[in-house]
Amino acid sequence: MIKVFLIGIKDVKIRARDPSSFIILLVMPLILILVLGMVFQPLWTSTPFTIDIAVLDEDNGEFSKILLDEVFGSEQLKDMVKIKYVESKEEIINEVNKGKIAAGVIIGKEFSQAIMTGEDTRIKILADPEQTIKAGVIKNIVEAFTLEVLKRRIILGTSMGILVAKNLINPAEIQQLIPVWLSEIENMEELIRMDKKTEKRMDKNPLAMEYYAVGMGVMYILFATNAGAETIFQERRNKTLERIKVAPVSEREILGGKLFGIFLIALLQFVMIVFFTRIFYRVNWGDSILGIIIMIFSSVLAFSGLSTLLASLTKSEEQIGNIGPALAMIFGFMGGGMWPAFAFPDWLNMVSKFTPNRWAIDGFLKLMYQEGGVVSILPEVLVLLGMATVFFSLGIFRLRMKGVKVD
């Protein structure tokens, strides 16, 4: 183990003497984090979560007023749901087609009267298919409201029949009492609480600086591991590998030392990124120190394995120097490092889960924004360790198939 450790340390020292490596592995990601964080910050935080809707109220009755004034106009929702009153259905369709509103709500004529008399009635919603989340919120609120009203109508209808049959109430008073009783919608607060959760979930998106600290930090792990893998070819070119092989060191120890060097270079780089972004950019990486350490180690292991596999598939320092950065950029984009994964279309969201970047980013974001601990990141850690096992196994097998273990 001592020999493996010494070979790994030697590779780190060699890489540390190269000024270009220092710039690429530490300075560049820190600059990118700063630039992307500052440029995209307004897009992430300046616009509050609001839902623009158009309402055509052909009823103007008791229950349409309850929906518009007491539900949408409540203290909890009035700043989020912005209502525009229109005069026709065509105007709603036009607003939806232009993307100016998330949904249009049409309350038909005699809606309130139909409720009180037990007749069929409904509220129509026209939704913008490109604003499915916002339109879905409005749909859920309206559905819950109408279901509650209908439930109350059934209960009251039954009760009225019993009271009238037993002469406990004057039938002439029923029309005056029904609006009062039905207006006491028992689940009004539940409707509002449901919508507040949607608003909170949207507001919990990470700040741009913090997201890109994770995204760029993870993406540059692959740059670092590729730099470590290049030392295998550099030592062959400089003939230092031959001198190591004639020393009293087994080829297993040489291979172990080279892999440890790849891991160590990436580990030191990522730790420095976490340290610098925490001190100078005020990035909050989470409260679970153990969780952060586990995520760092599992992420670095996965990318070290990937670079080992890449080194086994290439034939020269130039090849890994060209293919490695291109692969890092592709994985960085697909994994959510350059643009947030929660904004991906469904197909890209699925594809991104085949990259270690996505699992590493998701794990770190759990620690940062969901107050997660070790237990919460276990799925991400297990996937990353599984990827590391597969990558290392294939890479080591390929290196040994070359006939000289590390040659």
Description of the molecule:
The chain has 407 residues and is mainly alpha-helical. The protein has 2 domains: 2-44 and 205-401, no CATH class; 51-203, abc type-2 transporter like fold, CATH 3.40.1710. It has 16 helices and 4 strands. Helix 3 (62-71) links the parallel strand 1 (51-57) and strand 2 (81-85). Helix 9 runs antiparallel to helix 13.
What labels describe this entry?
abc type-2 transporter like fold, mainly alpha, 2 domains, disordered C terminus, four-stranded mixed sheet, 16 helices, single chain, 407 residues
Characterize the main sheet. Answer: 4 strands, mixed
Termini distance?
Answer: 21 Å
Structural class: mainly alpha
Radius of gyration: 31 Å
Run of helices and strands:
HHEHEHEHEHHHHHHHHHHH
The proportion of residues in beta strands is: 5-15%
**What would the average pLDDT be, to the nearest integer?**
79
Percentage of residues assigned to helices: over 70%
How many beta-strand elements?
4
How would the blueprint of this fold be written?
Elements: H1 2-16, H2 19-45, E1 51-57, H3 62-71, E2 81-85, H4 89-97, E3 103-107, H5 111-117, E4 123-127, H6 132-165, H7 171-182, H8 188-203, H9 208-237, H10 240-246, H11 251-280, H12 289-313, H13 317-334, H14 346-352, H15 356-369, H16 378-401
Parallel strand pairs: 1-2, 1-3
Antiparallel strand pairs: 3-4
Helix pairs in contact: 1-11, 2-9, 2-11, 6-7, 6-8, 9-11, 9-12, 9-13, 9-15, 11-12, 12-15, 12-16, 15-16
